[in-house]
Amino acid sequence: MSAKEKLPRETRNDLKRNREGRLSSRQWLQLITEPLTTLLLLSVPLILIAGRYGPAGRLIVIALLGAFVLTMAMRALRFARVKLSYRVLYADGSNSRWKLWRKTTLASKSGEAIRFDHRLSGRLKAPPDQALHTYYVEAGGRRILLTAVPKRHPQAELAEPSDHFEQAGGTFYAD
Fold first, then answer.
1. In the beta sheet, which residues pair with residue 5?
2. Beta-ladder partners of 87
3. Which of 16, 112, 124, 145: disulfide with 116, CB 3.0–4.6 Å?
4. How far apart are CA 102 and CA 144, in angstroms?
5. What is the C-alpha separation between 8 and 84, in angstroms, rounded?
6. Is there a domain that residue 27 lies in?
7. Which residue range is the domain that position 89 belongs to?
8. What is the pLDDT along the chain (175 residues), one digit of tens a residue?
9. pTM for this one?
10. Is residue 125 included in any domain, yes or no?
11. How far apart are CA 90 and CA 107, in angstroms?
């Protein structure tokens, strides 16, 4: 097996936890901190303006930091209890690499399009109609792709759910 055929270490570590029906620490942290970049960018002008108002401005900044902490705590609670889903999906030929704004779309065996609003794994590079082991979560009305590994990959057995997957609250789709 060449180095190109091996799964990256991060992916292997994520799969070890996902196949047990749990998020890896890295995935959990990414899900919790996802909105922070946007919130920070939007709040920079407010922080700059608040700095001109002395003690009242400091209170505004402290309140803003409290809102950040509260947002992260609420997301931590929500994603601590989230249930993973496992499904064999097929790569959709319409995904273009250069169209970064497009959501990842995969298809079930019956042809139903499954759209993912966000993905934690790297850019999906799979030829059309290739079967993929996929783990994802559904939260807040959106699907988030955690990991996707081609079934033909030499290390694909790492991606198959364990016997404990459903016991841990995971949802196994057998279509």
1. none
2. 134
3. 145
4. 14
5. 21
6. no
7. 83-172
8. 444 578 888 989 999 999 999 999 999 999 998 888 888 888 888 888 887 888 888 898 899 889 889 988 998 888 888 899 999 999 876 555 555 567 888 988 888 889 998 888 776 677 777 899 999 999 888 899 999 999 888 888 888 999 989 888 888 887 6
9. 0.81
10. yes
11. 5
Amino acid at 24: S
> For 135, how many CA atoms within 13 A lie in the half-sphere containing its CB?
30
- The residue among 105, 155, 159, 111 whose CA lies nearest residue 133 is 159
Q: What is the spatial distance between Cα 129 and Cα 91, in angstroms, rounded to a whole number?
A: 5
For residue 118, the cross-strand partners are: 144
Count structural domains, the chain: 1
In a domain, 123, yes or no: yes
Phi, psi at 24, each rounded to 5°: -80, 165
Helix (H) or strand (E) holding 139: strand 131-139
